Amino acid sequence: MSAELSKLLNTLGLLAIGMVLTMAFIDQVWFGELPCPLCILQRAGLIAAGCGIALNIVFGPKPSHYGIAIIGAVASAGISTRQILLHVVPGTGFYGPDVLGLHLYTWAFLFAVAIVVGSAIMLLSDRQFSQVQPSSGRLKALPLTAVLLFLILTIANIFSTVALCGGGLCPEEPDDYELFSIND
Amino acid sequence: MMSLPFVLFACAIGAAWMRQRGVSVGFWLVGLVTMLILFRVHVTEVLSIQL
After folding, report:
1. In chain A, which residue's Cα lies nearest the Cα of B49?
2. DSSP state of B47
3. Do A157 and B3 touch (CB under 8 A)?
4. What is the DSSP string of B4-28?
5. How many beta-carbon pairs below 8 A join chains A and B?
6. Partner B contacted by A135 (CB < 8 A)
7. CA gyration radius, chain B
8. CB A57, CB A11: distance < 8 Å
9. Residue B40 pLDDT > 80, yes or no?
10. pTM summary value
11. Residues of chain A neighbouring B26 (CB-CB closer than 8 A)
12. Residues of chain A with C-beta less than 8 angstroms from the C-beta of B43
């Protein structure tokens, strides 16, 4: 696999993470489903994984960047697992609505596993690492859009979390924003 | 406080944008540790799984 193809696949991966984060925002803003603390941390985990992919796009593919993506995805999967186990026993309830039969934290777990598997598959190709990347090369339109969208979504999560939790920890089951009210 | 990981990850992406790879990885690492600390803080109840 050439470095260019690797960059394209990383761009598509980062866009996929951006799509998941956007869908989480749509669920929060449009459908009024406020995220729990673990849900917020799962978003952070996906962003941590996305940082590795963004590094691949900006600096060219490197094994260490895939390592960063895998560590972030494993952290996100661990947080999702904790939430799945909280509700795994029948009668212990659930958090939020289900989408296609699975709750969002289960989808987050599956997506994190997909990032780990995808990164492992990408690591199988050595040729992408042997090509020297120009460190000052400008990004093309699609990679530029992916990284910019990812940065915007990360910043949007800062504002969303501050609005929801204020300066402290988030309530376990939030029913309204800390900074303003949507239930009046 | 919960927004801290996002702030640090945004700094990591910003540093990558400015082509500062070492700084970017540093921000990412601190963000990851912060995220894991916040996870530990929110894990307060013991799992009760009796099948």
Report:
1. A89
2. P
3. yes
4. HHHHHHHHHHHHHHTT-HHHHHHHH
5. 108
6. yes
7. 15
8. yes
9. yes
10. 0.90
11. none
12. 82
**Chain B residue whose CA is closest to A71:** B32
What local confidence, expressed as pLDDT, does residue A137 receive? Answer: 60
- Whole-angstrom distance, CA of residue A72 vs CA of residue A112: 9
B11: tokens are 């700094």
Confidence band, pLDDT 50/70/90 cuts, at residue A135: low
Facing B35 at nearest CB: one of A48, A59, A169: A48
CA nearest neighbour of A122 among A75, A65, A51, A58: A65
A103 phi and psi, to 5 degrees? -75, 160
In the numeric block, which tokens belong to residue A118? 């995808």
Which residue of A51, A79, A157 is in closest CB contact with B12?
A51
ipTM of the complex: 0.91
A139 touches chain B (CB under 8 A): no
Tokens of A182: 């949507």
> Residue for token digits 């929801």?
A164
Measured CA to CA, the distance from residue A61 to residue A7 in angstroms comes to 7
Contact A158 B1 (CB under 8 A): no
Contact between B31 and B9 (Cβ < 8 Å): yes
Tokens of A74: 């494993």
Sequence-ordered strand ranges (E) for chain A: 98-99, 102-103
CA distance linking residue B25 with residue B36, whole number of Å:
16
Rg (CA), chain A: 18
